Each structure stands twice: as structure tokens, then as C-alpha cells.
Amino acid sequence: MTALPAAAALPAAAPCRALTDRPDPVSTLHKPKILVVNDDAASLFALTSLLAQWADQEGYEVLPARSGQDALRQVLRHDFAVILLDVNMPGMDGFETAEAIHQRARSANIPIIFITAFLTDELDRLKAYQCGAVDFLFTPVIPQVLHAKIAVFVALAMKNEELRLQARQLSLRTTALTGTNKRLTREIEERKSAERQNHAKDEFLAMLGHELRNPLSAISSAATLIGLPGVTPEGAARARQIIQRQSQHLGRIVDDLLDLSRAMSGKILLSRTPMDLAALVTGCLETCRATGRGAGYTLRQQLEPAWVDGDATRIEQIVSNLLDNALKYTPPGGIIELRTGTDGDDAVLTVHDSGVGIAPELLPQVFDVFVQGASTLDRSQGGLGIGLSLVRRLAELHGGQVQADSDGDGAGSTFTLRLPRVAHGVPAAPAAQRLAPADKPTVLLIEDNDDGREMMAMMLGCYGYAVQQAAAGDQGLQLASRCRPDLALIDIGLPAMDGYEVARRLRADPATRDIKLVALTGYGQAEDRQRVLDAGFDLHLVKPVDVEHLLQVIGHCMGQAVD
């Protein structure tokens, strides 16, 4: 216990220079705290009252403690600028209390000033310093000395608190700058990516223009040749073949663009049936050989049964696009090998070619839209470079994936398709055809495009069909009511009254409700087909319509088989 003089009898002390120079806005900082530990109530009151005289002026708080245990509890709750600790206390004395305080990491650096009424020898001083003491005060305490010592530690605590606050603000600023930097970096990358995509789109549009002009030029030249005087029958027949082949090529270009758009937007609906991937690949190879696309190449196959649950049309698209890609980037005389089989739960198709290969920097992007390898506008095989993008999307719609591998330029490439494997299935048997009657059905053709209407009417007339023509919906309704055709081919995009309304009115009239209705449209999505059926049509055809397919549709619609 240390006795202290009454606080009221002590003179006031002037503020020290260290506190005068400290920053003014203390309100933003935590007030430093001073802990006074003394077991004697009177001494504790005197010392805390003395310190309280300067508390408002110096900006600190004073907390009392009656024992070493009470002091430890306070230290657990608060951080202190300095502790005034009585040496002689019952139970846990000042040395033990100081040692316990400094054993805790958070309070290990709190300065402790021992207060004692007894003169200490060098051993006691050494023990005190080993316990963490920074100074001694002897009673009776001289107020000016106490104020000066306390002021130093309060100023130091305030400076440390300011530094901690600045560090927190700097950390927040650093975090904000880091976030801004990351955002700017991301925006720069996104801008670069957008610029690359725009450049790729520009190249794609240039390629699209080239791919469209090639068949259009051939069609225009062939059509002109047919009308020239002196053209031989063989020349005219050759020109007609060119027109038909190039028209089909144009149709494939449009189909690829529409299919990719529908696939990317998730609007393709799959009609799944069990099928053998090996049998489907065999059919694609036979078509490739029959059309001459594989001429000049060695086509090898190693096909083992691999059953999948998929849409036959879309799976055939995948195989055809992979095969076309191999043909496009393999010089004549090269080797293309197709393999099918199973690997665990996957049915696997591998298409390997000995072609130009894929550069390492292009390999990760080979399935991206508008990405192609090095090519020129005069390349012989042509193509839009969207086939692989369509392959990946169709594979994903089937729950599968496709992967490209290559050892680089000139090393060929390998594309691996993986689809979920299913147990061996039995494909549905085709429906038996019915025999065609001798009489051809009468046809009403409602089409506002004069050239298209005239050509289709002429084609049907060549096959023995009697065709009535109408260029608008109201004219078509009048012809249907007057002539009572067996079947009507109706364009959906008619002016004034569209094909849907024409179909609804034909179905509503008892005189025409039994006419078979076939829609002709450039829209081929699933919702378009459903809208056609909802309007009362029997069948849906997507332009351009191949004549052979048109004849089959008419025969099917009329319950006939076409010879």
C-alpha cells in the first residue's frame, strides 16, 4: 500500500510541449486510458483524482483497480497508454501483476510505472525492469513529475493511435485502389476482347459476302447461259446442275447461320431417339463419297457400335461439320480417319486429319464464334468458320463435349466428341408408304413473290400437278372457295393478310375446311412450327424448298407415295 497526499493540495502543472504539438482532431481517435492500481482506497482515490485534473486537458481517461486480479481483468477489456502500479499489495504484488500483464501478447508492450513508498535497492529495481517496468515514482508523488511522465506516455499512445488510424485509412485506400486497378484492368481486357471480336466479325462479314457472292455468281452465269442462243442441250443441262448445286450451297450457308443463332440462344429443341453413332457416321461417309466431297482424300474408318440418345439430325450435323472441317484444312492427298467406340460412360467419336494443324495460340479459341485459322478469300474449300462453334453448342445440348488437339502447324489435328452413352436400343421403324393414286391432287399456290411463285408453279406443272396461283391472301381465299383445291401451299409472309390468317379463314369456312394446308416460310424454329400448326396448317416447309422434298411432302400430306 502506498500513501499519497490529497489531490486538492497539489498545484496544477503546465501542459508539456509533446502534447501541445499533437494533432488537434482527437475526436476521431480513441482516448488513451490510464490504469491506476492500488489496494488502499484512499491512496487510489487521491491518485485518480490527481490525474483527473488533467484528463480533459490532455484527452485521456483514468480507470481504477483495487488489486492485481482486478488490474488483469481491466487489461483484458481495454488498451492502456500507461499503468501506475503499486508495488506492495497483498495477494498478488506489483511485480507479479506486471509479469502477468506482460505475458499476454496484446498487453506485453504497455509501459508500467511502479509506485512505492519504500526506497528500493538495485536488486528490486532490476526485478522491476525485468517485469516490464519503465520507471519508478516514490511517494509522496510530486505532481509536476507525475504530469510530465504521464504526458509523455499519453502523447505516445495518441501518436500510435493516429498511426493506426492512418494505417487503416491507407489500407482502405489501398484496397480501393487495388479494386479500381483490377476493374480498370478488366475493362481494358474486355475492351481488347471486344475489339478482337469486332475485328473477327468484320472478317466474318467479309467472308460471308465472299461465300454468298460465289454461288450467286455461278447461278447468275448459269441462268444467263441457258437463255443464250446456240447453247447446246448438254450445256443447258450442265447449267441447270450448277444452279441446283449452288442453290443448295446457299441454303446450307443460311441454315448454318440460323442453326448457330438458335443454338447460341438455346432455342433448338432436340427430338431424341436411341441411335448407333457408328451407323450414323457410316451414313455421313457414304454421303461424302457419293457427292464427291471426299475425292482426292484417303478416308479411313474404324467404327465400333456406340449408342447414344440424341437427335439424329443434329448429331449428323456434328459429324458432317467435323468431317467438313477436316476436308477444308487437309490438302488433297491427305488422310482423314474417323473412329467410334466407348470409353466408360461415354460414346466417343474421333476425327483425325493429316492437315495443316492448329497453332498453339489458336487452339483454346478454335470453338469460339467468329474464330478461324489463317485463311484467304481465294481458298478452294470455302466456308464461314462457324461450323465448330455449332458443333460445340450441339454437343453441349446433348450433355456432351468436344475437344480439339494438335501438335501445331503442319501436324494435323484431332477432334474428339464425347456424348453420354446409353444401352443398346432399337431405332423406330419407318412408317410404311401408301400407294399413290393415278390422279394428281389439285394445288393452290399463294405466294406474293412473283418469281418464286412462277418457278414453283412451273416445277409442279412439270410433274403433272394442276396449279392455281394467287399473289395475296384475299385472292387466295376467293380461288380456294371457287376452285376447291385438294391442297394449298401458303406463304406465311403475305402482305396485308398473312398466311396464318389465311389458314384460319380456310378452316373456318365449311366449304374449304378440308383442304390440306402446307406452310411455306423462312422461319424454321420450334415455336414457328408450333404457331403454324396452331393456325390450322397440316405441315410446315422452310424455304428454299427442294422439289424432291416438296413432292414427298405433298404425297405424305395427301396420303400418297410419289414414284
Secondary-structure topology with pairs:
Elements: H1 17-20, E1 33-37, H2 41-52, H3 55-58, E2 61-65, H4 68-77, E3 82-86, H5 94-103, E4 112-116, H6 122-130, E5 133-138, H7 143-226, H8 233-264, E6 272-276, H9 277-290, E7 298-303, E8 307-311, H10 312-328, E9 335-343, E10 346-353, H11 387-397, E11 401-405, E12 413-420, E13 443-446, H12 450-462, E14 467-470, H13 473-483, E15 487-491, H14 499-508, E16 516-521, H15 526-534, E17 539-542, H16 547-557
Parallel strand pairs: 1-2, 1-3, 3-4, 4-5, 7-9, 13-14, 13-15, 15-16, 16-17
Antiparallel strand pairs: 6-8, 9-10, 10-12, 11-12
What is the terminal separation in angstroms? 123 Å
CATH architectural designation of the largest domain? 3-Layer(aba) Sandwich
Low-confidence stretches: 3-27, 374-383, 428-438
Give me the side-by-side strand order of the main sheet.
2-1-3-4-5
Annotation field: number of helices: 16
Q: What is the CATH C-level name of the largest domain?
A: Alpha Beta
Q: Could you say which structural class the secondary elements and strand pairing correspond to? A: alpha/beta
3D shape = elongated
> Fraction of residues in helices?
40-55%
Mean pLDDT: 80
Enzyme class: transferase
Modified residues (4-aspartylphosphate): 86, 491
GO molecular function: phosphorelay sensor kinase activity
Subcellular location: Cell inner membrane
